[in-house]
Amino acid sequence: MGHYPLLAKEGDVTIGGAFSIHTKITQPPLSFTEKPAYLTCSSVNLRIPLRQFRFAQTMIFAIEEINKRDSLLPNVSIGYRIYDNCGSTLTSMRAVMGLMNGGEWAVTKSCSGQSAVHAIIGESESSLSIVLSRTTGPFEIPVISHSATCECLSNKKEHPSFFRTIASDLHQSRALAQLVKHFGWTWVGAVNSDSDYGNNGMAIFLSAAQEEGVCVEYREKFNRAEPEKVMRVVEVIQKSTARVIIGFLAHVEMTNLLEQLSLHNITGRQFIGVEAWITADSVVAPNSFSVLGGALGFAVPKSNISGLDTYLIKDFWETDFKCKEKDKGSSSERACKVNHDLDELKEYVDDVAKLTYTSNIYKAVYAVAHSLHSVLNCSDSLGCNKTKALTPKEIMESLKKVNFTIKNGEQVWFDSTGSAVARYEVVNWQQDPNGLIEFKPVGYYDAFLPPGQRFVLRTEEIMWPGGNKELPVSVCSESCRPGTHKVLQKGKPVCCYDCIPCAEGEISNTTDSTDCVKCPEEYWSNQNRDACVMKNVEFLSFTEVMSKILVFFTVFGVLLTLIVATTFLMNKDTPLVKANNSELSFLLLFSLTLCFLCSLTFMGRPSQWSCMFRHTAFGITFVLCISCVLGKTIVVLMAFRATLPGSNVMKWFGPVQQRLSVVAFTLIQVVICILWLTINPPFPFKNMKHFKEKIILECALGSPVGFWAVLGYIGLLALLCFIFAFLARKLPDNFNEAKFITFSMLIFCAVWITFIPAYVSSPGKFTVAVEIFAILASSYGLLFCIFAPKCFIILLKPEMNTKKHMMDRK
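That's the Extracellular calcium-sensing receptor-like sequence above. Prediction below.
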């Protein structure tokens, strides 16, 4: 049995058409005894969708318009053969064979391998277009689709003769990923048709989504003939946590899914759609908006072709109502009545006003015409070379180069894959004041603009699911605030993570940081761990309470020393003052004053000079002090030696020798300090190791050898002084100073022996405080042990301050 074209007209050249003018409502399953080759559209229940019928009308309109033009194919008429494939792959195959071999139009001709048409417009769906392209490919017959978007059709090795006046899904899939990322949706579900169109488009989307950092919770697919899989998809959507669903579906599959979602009352999801269903009339139903309200998606931009809408409405009127407008002098046609039911016509007029895919068919016909015009070497004056033999390959090669502008000013050309320019309108499912569903444009996407200008969205005009104006959230994990970083949850996608606070000394100052950054050495993290702040610099300043206490005892010690010196000065001629070597006593009081004052140099912000001065001042003043005490001790020993018969000891340790010994002992310390300052002096140092969160500003020793040499020399003199004083402690005298010196040296040594471990273990500014305490304690020990007994006698027991009492022996 043959297969007849639904619509046909003879011409010098012929363009074929293949559309799903009838679609199946129900079809019983075929048994193995049935022969699908004989299946015709009349063998099943059918309906005629207005949109598909309009495609055929648009093709005829464009052909008739070209035939009336003098500038395009001036002396060549275009004919057409339009077949109905009924939306069936089997019927589509027979339609293709009919287009290629002429069908019943060529029953008297033998099969010569010469195609009955020079180009084919169609199919509407990608799967049928693949069948059409693979069948015509070996014969190099150009096929131009108006709505097949599968990226697989861009493969010129498999589909060398395929063209389309719509963009490839490569751009739409990438645009979907960018749209999802734009709104911050990083956790989405994905459902696609189990077909070449759905599988290829979803594969591109998943790859683009991964690049954009979007995670897919689930990916489900089903075919229109698999109702059990639709139920599985519904169950997955119902259990999922993703609030955004990417639907890369043909309009038939989307209609099936919508019905089940409505039955199960699954609402509140944000659907993101593709051009195949986002504006499809078949998806619009009374319960559609409860599920798809607020949906966003890409649609083919509207295109206004002048005269097309009038033609389509007139043709529909004549076809559906079986009448024509009454022409003057003509009585062959039945005149149209004025009382026809116009409800169906109103629906048709509204549909025509959209003019989306219909304009793509118009462009496809004109592309073929311009290609033929070039191949036939047409000119306005000479017309076309009608004797030239046309080959499909010539037409195909010419199509690759076409570049023309249709009458609405839109430019038409094909890229290297045979696809049109990728331009989409972003539409939003909304309701008008009457409660009717409208597809409101809220932006556009143009893949051929620079990257930063491709997307334009008017977000304030978008209505989200449930009629909300607030952007829905769809994330696996909430964003990690600054101060935390993401740690992936084991076994889950990268969008599922825990927010862990940054460690001390580390920060993250961006949302969703993958790691924390360590602060520079002199900085530390703030409490929120989102910024590095300068570390607090710590040193023993004069404003601290501890410093004030130490200053008080320093000043108090100086005042006591001055009081003692004044007392001694006022009683310098008394036997007690004379007997205790007044010159060394005053020198000792002077050195004690310096010892008290040198503690002040350890306070305040360390600097290069203060670090050098504090240690040298401490070392020299204490040596001066101990030298005086040592001199006094030696004088006591010599004095009692001098009382022995024939002793001449005091001649060798008189006042001059006493002064020289003090100077000599002190000069040794001065030399040690000079060597220390010359070789490796103390310097201010920022200690950042002891405390992580603050900087200890301290004086580094420079040369530890120099520091311990200064302390060691002081300790040596103190030890000598202690030994001499201990030897002289029991000498017969009413006032033996040696026992007080012994006690003072015990205190001095005890203080500095305990100072060493305390100095090493004390942190930060407390190290300095320990050093000051040791200086003050040892100074107070010397002052009280040596001078308190003398002041007691001078001020409270003046009767004991006589030469007789001083000379009496126990």
